[in-house]
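# nightly structure sweep
# worker-07 picked up a monomer target from the shared queue
# config: single-sequence mode, recycle default, output format = structure tokens
# input follows
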Amino acid sequence: MITSRRKFISSASAIVAGAGLASALPVNLSAFPKIFSAADKIRVGAIGINGMGWSDLRAVLKNPGVECVALCDVDQNVLDKRAAELAEKGVKVKTYGDYRQLLDDKNIDAVVIGSPDHWHCLMMVEACQAGKHVYVEKPIGNSIAECRSMVAAQERYQRVVQVGQWQRSQKHFRDAIEFVHSGKLGKIGLVKVWGYFNYGTPIVSLPDSIAPAGVDYEKWLGPAPKRPFNANRFHGKFRWYWDYAGGIMTDWGVHLLDYALLGMKAGAPKSIIATGAKVFNTGVDAPDTLTTVYEFDDFNIQWEHVIGYGAGIYNREHGIAFLGSNGTLIVDRKGWEVVPQGQKMEAITFQKSSDNGLDLHAQNFIDVIRSGKLEDLKAPIQIGSDVAILSQMGNIAYRTGNKIEWNQEKGKFGDAAANKLMGKDYHNGYKMPGA
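# output follows
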């Protein structure tokens, strides 16, 4: 029988508690947040504002009664640029180079975290401890242990934590999954998930150099291993290195594999096997070409990614395909359709996406802050944890080179090398929350 997502979440939480992570977190005496009325201002700060953090903040600010009061970034150039953009709109904000100073600001009710992945756990947990609500970019953590720690923190402090998996707020994705759940596709034995991206230019090795003027590189590294500055490990390209992220597997995988899990009502896989290569990039850690197979009781989920092409399965750059005995449903960010198997069912022509997922996701975050109804969140931390852990499993299978089996009851692999990769060592005086 397939492990349900509810059981997956509850088991993960129990494992966290058993490991002492939840009890190790400091107690916040104001454990339950206040309810904001429609007349109350919600004051927001943003940490990490070069890319998606800035897009997230702008989406949040489209909601009535929300104002930005503070920005934080370790790159003074980015910080000055964003503060100037807000000033042009008549918005004056405090600026910080250290996120802890922003979290100490009692005038801030919620934070947007758009930092590199290796910072997500520390910032999200400490934001909850400081009494802030959190919109955190995906993937939530850079290791399985970090994901568990983040779930434990949200459960302990009861803050609103929305994960930036904004496809969860799009109608056409919900409609597609509703059709999958209808059973009309027949028996689904395989779900194919893929991303064939023109993911920037191929990366070639560069010599180490000094950090750009205005960049506090020590703060950028944070808990990551101390290394000389290299442009390939900085803005935009950091995702290719295990120190900071998990490549395309965790970047896009959390968006797309999420819907594979949701469509199949699936929890943890029984086993994972992965093979990949660095075909285009040199000097990086994460593969630019990867195939991963997740085994469940009576179906498989197959992930594929490759850079440099731009067109993949069903002539789509990315997508999820549910292959049933009666037909196949294909969904991506543009819409969904059903291709019948012979005469076994009616075709459904392409149903085009008609909304803005990011804006709706930000609105949902603000609405839940006002209502206090955590159950209304579209992408709560538990959902973000499920799929981030699944993506990490794919990377761990690739890195070990083994077919690895997952023991759901014990919350670990049956492979010693794989279990060593479940955690993440913290450096430079930092300590993982709850460790």
